[in-house]
């Protein structure tokens, strides 16, 4: 089969407090995102979020429904967002084609029945990083190029967190039901993301780390602000972040990461900030 999935239960703060390294990684880390000509979904019970990658090599890869959804087709009651982190690609949505280049995004609304992913060059395949959430309304399919993103620069080299935030699939750029996606690029010499850290009880989040140089890694921090844990991550891996958890990382080099969010709130600024000096 070209499509498969696994489902992960939500974990409470008290459960996570007692987890060792292996248990943390099993519950929250998504180690393999991209596999040639296959879509392998990871479903979390936090807001029924789905995460996967599509890397077409031998031919087109079609978005297929999975038993978990109990739906005739994947987007019957869902919306889909993606950002291409590979070579140039094409996404076909009910017969309409969208050319998606490196670090460009595409939103596909509820009700679209046939979605097919293609690479322009099999030697440099496209890598579509996919996020999907339940949807109650159908919004138009739309490509968002890098120049169309809402861009914010935060931090400073002196605090090792100088970074550019590219808000791609967010409500200030286009309409979605609940899914929001964007990309944060760290400047050379900076390693910290999302610091000072925060939580947001009305949204969960998934981070996907890429452009991590060979031989380098990112240490992702999670947990309640006064009871933090960490997960060491490699290039092109993702991590699930519960609403009650901080989500921050420090790399042994600069890197880029994609954030995806879902929940009852589309306000990007809705965050409960944690003072750096009070983290434990």
UniProtKB/TrEMBL annotation:
Biochemical pathway: Glycan metabolism; pectin degradation; 2-dehydro-3-deoxy-D-gluconate from pectin: step 4/5
Lineage: Bacteria, Pseudomonadati, Bacteroidota, Chitinophagia, Chitinophagales
Residue positions binding Zn(2+): 198, 200, 205, 247
Extent of the signal sequence: none
Annotated cofactor note: Binds 1 zinc ion per subunit.
Protein name listed in UniProt: 4-deoxy-L-threo-5-hexosulose-uronate ketol-isomerase
Keywords assigned: Isomerase, Metal-binding, Zinc
Family: Belongs to the KduI family.
UniProt GO BP: D-galacturonate catabolic process; D-glucuronate catabolic process; pectin catabolic process
Required cofactor(s): Zn(2+)
SUPFAM superfamilies with a match to the protein in the record: RmlC-like cupins
EC number(s) stated in the UniProt entry for this protein: 5.3.1.17
Superkingdom assignment: Bacteria
One Pfam family per UniProt: KduI
């Amino acid at each position: 089969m070209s499509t498969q999935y696994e489902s992960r239960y939500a974990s409470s703060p008290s459960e996570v407090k007692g987890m060792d390294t292996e248990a943390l990684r099993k519950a929250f880390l998504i180690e393999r995102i991209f596999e040639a000509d296959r879509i392998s979904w990871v479903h979390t019970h936090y807001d029924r979020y789905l995460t996967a990658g599509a890397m077409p090599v031998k031919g087109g890869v079609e978005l297929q429904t999975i038993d978990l959804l109990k739906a005739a087709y994947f987007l019957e009651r869902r919306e889909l967002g993606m950002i291409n982190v590979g070579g140039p690609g094409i996404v076909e949505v009910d017969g309409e084609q969208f050319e998606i280049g490196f670090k460009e995004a595409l939103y596909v609304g509820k009700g679209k029945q046939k979605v097919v992913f293609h690479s322009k060059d099999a030697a440099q395949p496209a890598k579509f990083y996919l996020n999907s959430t339940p949807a109650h309304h159908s919004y138009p399919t739309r490509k968002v190029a890098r120049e169309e993103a809402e861009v914010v620069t935060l931090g400073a080299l002196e605090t090792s967190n100088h970074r550019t935030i590219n808000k791609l699939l967010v409500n200030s750029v286009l309409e979605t039901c609940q899914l929001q996606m964007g990309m944060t690029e760290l400047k050379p010499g900076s390693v910290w993301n999302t610091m000072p850290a925060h939580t947001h009880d009305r949204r969960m989040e998934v981070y996907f780390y890429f452009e991590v140089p060979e031989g380098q890694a990112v240490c992702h921090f999670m947990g309640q602000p006064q009871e933090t844990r960490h997960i060491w991550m490699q290039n092109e891996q993702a991590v699930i972040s519960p609403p009650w958890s901080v989500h921050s990382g420090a790399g042994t080099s600069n890197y880029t990461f994609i954030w995806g969010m879902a929940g009852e709130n589309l306000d990007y600024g809705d965050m409960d900030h944690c003072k750096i000096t009070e983290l434990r």
